[in-house]
């Protein structure tokens, strides 16, 4: 199933925090989303070999707006455009992964583009849109390190963040109007991961994922 890759978990971040040192991460290492969130919260820099500690800490602690990758198929194009404007008005930076018109496209391509941007840390979070939101969430979840949640109300949005530490939100354009979708995206982006017992469960999800990457 491929070459073994080093796995960086929340436990590794905790150990680095106790030592007061940055965590050196090889380029081919798989860093779990829970570990990335733990590093941000604890102020632990994830740095490549050879990077100075000062440089790593500066990169981690630099203040910047949340960078959100967003993508939709043709059915979700109009909703994507509305969400883009709203997210920018809320102070977020938006990376538009397409599509850029109402011409027919395949939702897995757009979901992959968004999920890849998040998994590779080019963006902090991602939002994908198609007719129902289900297909895009399935496609996004095939990318290692991604936990995409298909949400349709405030309860599922908050739960996906608090309990599941979802890093990609999937919305269905056929069931949501622009005002409702904007509110769901706003709450999703502002809701923190609860941690605690949920961290253990997220690490188990990551362990299952890692098993099939080896």
CATH architecture of the largest domain: 3-Layer(aba) Sandwich
Order of helices and strands: EHEEHEHEHEHEHEHEHH
Structural class of the helix and strand makeup?
A: alpha/beta
Mean pLDDT: 86
Shape call: globular
- Cα end-to-end separation: 5 Å
Helix segment tally = 9
Largest sheet: 5 strands, parallel
SS strand fraction? 5-15%
Gyration radius (Cα, Å) is 17 Å
Count of separate structural domains: 2
| CATH superfamily label of the largest domain | Sugar-phosphate isomerase, RpiB/LacA/LacB
User: Tally of extended strands?
Assistant: 9
Question: What does the model show?
Answer:
- By secondary structure, the protein is α/β, with parallel strands linked by helices.
- The protein folds into two domains: 56 residues, no CATH class; 124 residues, Sugar-phosphate isomerase, RpiB/LacA/LacB (Ribose 5-phosphate Isomerase B, Chain: A), CATH 3.40.1400.10.
- The protein contains nine helices and nine strands.
- The strands form three sheets. The protein has a five-stranded parallel beta sheet, sandwiched between helices. Strands 1-3 form a two-stranded parallel ribbon.
- The termini are close together.
